[in-house]
Amino acid sequence: MPTMNISLPENLKEFVESQVQSGNYSTVSEFMRELVRREQKERLREQLEQRLLEGLNSGEGVESTPEMWRDLHQEVRELARKMKHQNR
């Protein structure tokens, strides 16, 4: 696994080490990976929230009916078939 060196002020270094010593994490690397994963999840949540808001503000809604879903599934199947054919 590739490595990365980071510099921390003493108070942050002590905090990270205390998290490992408390048994919450087995290594400093495990703690840092968890922080990065949390940040990734937060960014994805923010993106989803933004897209949902854009959708809500995009105009009048459309009623979801079984026919609408059937037609949408058909369109997706046709698009997938075309893409598969193009990739040959």
Tell me what portion of residues adopts beta-strand conformation: under 5%
Unreliable residue stretches: none
Gyration radius over CA: 23 Å
Q: Tell me about the biggest sheet?
A: none
Query: How many DSSP H or I helices?
Result: 3
Extended strand count: 0
| Helix percentage range | over 70%
Distance between the amino and carboxyl termini: 35 Å
**Number of structural domains:** 1
Descriptive overview:
This protein has one domain (10-86). Helices cover 70% and strands 0% of the residues. It has helices at 10-21, 28-56, 66-86.
Key traits:
70% helix; 88 residues; 3 helices; mainly alpha; elongated
Helix/strand layout:
Layout: H1 10-21, H2 28-56, H3 66-86
Quick overview of this protein structure:
70% of the residues lie in helices and 0% in strands. The chain is mainly alpha-helical and 88 residues long. It is elongated, with a radius of gyration of 23 Å.
